Amino acid sequence: MLCDDVKRAVYFFLDGSLAAPKQHDFTEHLSLCPDCDRRTSVHRRLRIFVLARLKPESAPDRLKQRLARTFRAMGAEWS
Ligand SMILES: [Zn+2]
Fold it and tell me: Is the pLDDT of residue 79 over 60?
């Protein structure tokens, strides 16, 4: 794997959506290439930051799930 491949694949790598052999090539490249290693940890931190910022917006989904569970429980009680 070349540095350009690593740059292209970094988001897939962080998503865990790379195929196993690619994932292996990727981590191997990181262990040999400090530049890509550094770039990848910057992306990882950015991603964690962005995901953390997005969390409040997923609250309605969690609320919906909780409501759905509550309704199911109520339905079960009444049947
Ligand atoms: Zn590299």
Answer: no
**Torsion angle of C-alpha atoms 19, 33, 42, 11, degrees rounded to 10:** -20
SS3 26: helix
| CA separation for the pair 15, 79 (Å, rounded) | 43
The reported pLDDT for the residue numbered 22 is: 95
Ligand 1 center–CA 53 separation, angstroms: 29
Taking the centre of ligand 1 as the mean of its atom positions, its distance from the CA of residue 46, in whole angstroms, is 19
- Domain ranges in the chain? 3-78
